[in-house]
Amino acid sequence: MIGDGGDFVSFAGKFVEPRRPGGWLDPGPYGCLGAGLGAAIAARLARPSSQVVLLLGDGAAGFSLMDVDTLVRHGLPVVMVMGNNSAWGLEKAPMQMLYGYDVAADLAPRTAYHEVVRALGGAGETVTDPRQIGPALDRAFASGVPYLVNVITDVEAAYPRNTFGI
Tell me, what CATH number does 149's domain have? Predict the structure, then answer.
């Protein structure tokens, strides 16, 4: 399981429990966005018999989603679960807390990032209901190709911070 920064991975870090050492990789509290797909490629090569899951937000996808082309060309099935809240969540909520407004923190709503993965030779789908996540993951793992589960999330559900980071 790999986390590619952002609010979505902050939430996941509270709930995902690795089953063994080396089962969770993320960029840490001051990590960067966009490194997750490279890590997923490496994980797939290092553990070819393991299921590899990349958790990323829509902001992180903007940095590296084209790396799906590498996954496809080399036959490396990776399941990507995207929290698509249409925002730079790690910036939006703190700006609103500190200043009462945010600047340049919104992304296009409900972008069909899974279509990018399809265009590159993978597969994917959009999920809008939490009850659809399990069946979507089953389809993703059964597909045998890079697969993006594009989960539409609520931008108002900000990660519960206890500091402002300053």
Answer: 3.40.50.970
